[in-house]
Amino acid sequence: MTETTRLSGPVDGRVARNDWAALTAELDAHGHALTGPLITPAQCGELTALYDRPDRFRTTVDMARHRFGSGQYRYFTHDLPDLVRDLREAIYPRLLPIARAWAVKLRRPAPWPDTLTDWLRMCHEAGQTKSAQILLRYGPGDWNALHRDVFGDMIFPLQVVIGLNVPGTDFTGGEFLMTEQRPRAQTRGSATILPQGHGLVFTTRDRPVATKRGWSNGPMRHGVSTVRSGRRHTLGLVFHDAA
Ligand SMILES: O=C(O)CCC(=O)C(=O)O
Ligand SMILES: [Fe+2]
User: Fold this and answer.
1) Is the ipTM of this complex over 0.85?
2) Which of 39, 103, 132, 241 has the CB geometry, 3.0–4.6 Å to 123, for a possible disulfide?
3) Which atom of ligand 1 is closest in space to residue 174's alpha carbon?
4) Is 3 a residue whose pLDDT tops 80?
5) Per-residue pLDDT tens for 142-199?
6) How many Å lie between the centroid of ligand 1 and the Cα of residue 234?
7) pTM score, whole prediction
8) Is residue 33 part of a domain?
9) Number of domains in the chain
10) Dist. CA 240 → ligand 2 center (Å)
11) Which one of the ligands is nearest to 138 CA?
12) CA angle 111, 79, 92 (to 5 degrees)
């Protein structure tokens, strides 16, 4: 079976083909986990090409201007490309049981309903009405400072970034970075190379960490190391909307 036929099914089929039990275990242990291919190289190309279609976006962020790092990203309007909408809808129900299990461990409310549509309605009612789906473009020297994509009280605790270029070929550098602040200890860092079309699921804010007395929260941040050469594009899927 070739890569193209394997990927030719609908997005929810590709999402379903992942071993979600294994991904859940990985997320529990590390706060991030790499999926199999979610979109085809051709779809990666189509998404990358959208970057130059300003009508698809509500705003462009110059990362240096905000001291977020260096590079650019664009927020899609709510009129999302079908592929982006389908991915988000197919992934939300997979992440929901993880979000709920983590909330129980951390003794936090779990306000997330069964469907993304209902959750987004709740975000909108709380004033988080803007699309938070982004396309990012990094060139040589660009990087993304360690951060959290929290825009208000309405937070879905897991998000996904999809790599749109081929690492080592289209660009060098540009590893996806995560840090975890450990209680009474120094911070742990990790770097992941995002293969083209694959997704990295990661926690937006923190993960439950087992302690002698139960669970505590391990605060986490994510970012991107400096791109050395070429161009790196990613698609950022967040499950709450922005304020
Ligand atoms: O470009 C990346 O790998 C990460 C982008 C990011 O910050 C995000 O998707 O939230
Ligand atoms: Fe981010």
Assistant:
1) yes
2) 241
3) 3
4) no
5) 999 999 999 999 999 999 999 999 999 999 999 999 999 998 899 999 999 999 999 9
6) 7
7) 0.95
8) yes
9) 1
10) 13
11) 1
12) 30
Q: What is the mean pLDDT of residues 68-90?
A: 96
- Is residue 243 domain-resident? no
| Residue 210 parent element (H or E) | strand 206-211
CB neighbours (10 Å) of residue 61?
15
Tally of CB atoms within 10 A around 39: 24
Phi, psi dihedral angles at 83 (to 5 degrees):
-60, -40
Burial 73-108 (b: 16+ CB within 10 A, else e): bbbbeeebbebbbbbbebbbebbbebbeebbebbee
Domain assignment present for residue 242? The answer is: no
Residue 58, CA distances (Å) to 42, 120, 125, 138, 161 in order: 25, 18, 20, 19, 19
Does the pLDDT at position 22 exceed 90?
A: yes
Q: Is residue 5 part of a domain?
A: no
pLDDT at 47 over 90: yes
Distance 141 CA to ligand 1 centre (A): 16
What CATH number is attached to the domain comprising 219?
Answer: 2.60.120.620
- What is the 8-class DSSP label of residue 226? P
Q: Which residues line ligand 1 (CB under 6 A)?
A: 136, 144, 149, 161, 176, 222, 224, 234, 236
Q: Name the closest-CA residue to atom 9, ligand 1.
A: 236
